[in-house]
Amino acid sequence: MPVRAAEDATVNLMCGDEPAAQPIPDGRQIQVDLSPAPSMTLGEITGRIWREPPDRDPAWMLNFQGLRWMPPLALRAAQDAQYRSLTALIRQAVDFHLTNPDPGNNSAGWDEGTALRRLQTENCLYALTHSAALVQGMVADVAVLTGKRYAGPPRLPVHNHGLMANIHMINAGRVLNRPDWISFAANRIVSEAALAFSPAGVTFEQSSYYQNVNVALWNTAGAMLTQLRGYATEGRQIQAMSRKADRVWGYLTEPDGKIVQVGDSDLVEGQPGRPKDPKVLRDDDTGWVIGRSSWTDPDAAFYTVRYGPERRAHGQDDRAGGVTWSALGTRVLVGLGRYGYDTTDPLCMYRRDPSSQNVAAPPDPKIKKGSVSTIETDFGKTRHNLAVTDDVYGATHRRQIMVDQLHAGLAVTDGFGDVPVWSQNWHLDPAWKLVTGKVGDANLTFRHPSGRHLIVSTSGRISGIWIGDKTMPYGWVFPAAGQKTPAYQLSVESRDGAPVATSFRVT
């Protein structure tokens, strides 16, 4: 199979990866590290293995069946002029299609998310080698992304997967000289751009982390369009839209410099906001209030409140007034983030339960389809008062929130009307350690490594205190996918269904 290196600029555009750190054996068996699954030998991954992978974690399968482990190996082989290794990689990529053809549904790595990643890898391999053997597989993957499995309109709302598919289709059209693919994907990008962010620049994917993911992707798409004949104006408009949405990344950055974890989010670095911007962002289209007492003071107060339409994309069940809060520059109430997407793993599925959010809910709540929560706000100079009304859990609920920026306090009152039993759920940053109080009390005290104290007081009853519980599982936060850190989780039970007022004070 003849192979040859392509121009560096095209390779960098198509691959977007770093070469493997270690040299690749040339002309000998290549063992591929696919942890946590056992390593596999290149060329010996059969159709049965493609269809029945040894690890069923969705993220792992996305990487494996999407061939995303190949580009670093291919780049290193090309760097070292190891053409036999490149040929072995191409043969294995081609073998995926020969031994595991498209069944016409989402099984065996033929869902849109895996197909778009596989096309990305095939673009890289083709840019490196110009191997005609790759073309048939690329055509098959493009067929998935132009058919009913596409992650976008008209079947689904605009989503980052659809945009990635269009970006990789344009790249595939470039390397294979398929102008029809380029125009098809470019037209979809143009038609979907207006639906990606709210007028305020907030993503509809209900996740702080995916705000930045979408900003980066749409900026890339806009830049690509500016290089296409007939699309330059639309490309510049999309880049301007991305710049506006990038401003929201500053709103989502806490005083400690990292982002707030809301929805499926990792704890990553944020970016400074613009001091001239308002200190509060309210966006009814996406259901966010984000507030702070200062853009520059490291001891500033910061909070978020979630409301609005039902869960979508990377959102979690937090729209019944889910709150996060920091005071004196110190995180207090936090979102859990995401552990993963394996539906057989209790830690992954926990994020779908209201008890994983800073919300109030009845036991075994049934999420009401189509329910929408609304908010009222009064942003004073040092006090912000917010009230969320909803029936998310099948009963009328009202949450009143008071953020006292001057005295480092937060007060939350919940009421469920005629519901006899319900509880508030609270999740503390993992730095806090319990000093005094126990289940059954109305007051708890926690200490922070900085020396600060947190006093929690409630008109209800502390009905649960957990940290690092592996059985339920309660008392965890997830700083990144696959990582867990013990952190206090509290449950406050209503007394005979009466409203519950719980306050938090940092000193």
Q: How is the largest sheet built, in terms of strand order?
A: 9-10-11-12-21-16-15-14
Sequence stretches where pLDDT stays below 50 over 5 or more residues? 1-6
Bin the helical content. Answer: 25-40%
C-alpha Rg (nearest Å): 25 Å
By secondary-structure content and strand pairing, the structural class works out as alpha+beta
Terminal Cα span: 70 Å
- Average pLDDT reading: 94
Instruction: Note the beta-strand portion.
Output: 15-25%
Number of helices: 12
Shape: globular
Please report the total strand number as a whole number.
21
Major β-sheet annotation = 8 strands, antiparallel
Describe this structure as you would to a colleague:
The protein is α+β, with helices and mostly antiparallel strands. It has twelve helices and 21 strands. The strands form five sheets. Strands 9-10-11-12-21-16-15-14 form an eight-stranded antiparallel beta sheet, with no helix packed on it. A five-stranded antiparallel beta sheet has the order 3-4-5-6-7, with no helix packed on it. Helix 3 (58-65) runs parallel beside helix 6, helix 4 runs parallel beside helix 6 (112-129) and helix 8 (160-176) packs antiparallel against helix 9. The longest helix has 20 residues, at 232-251. The radius of gyration is 25 Å and the shape is globular. 45% of the residues are buried.
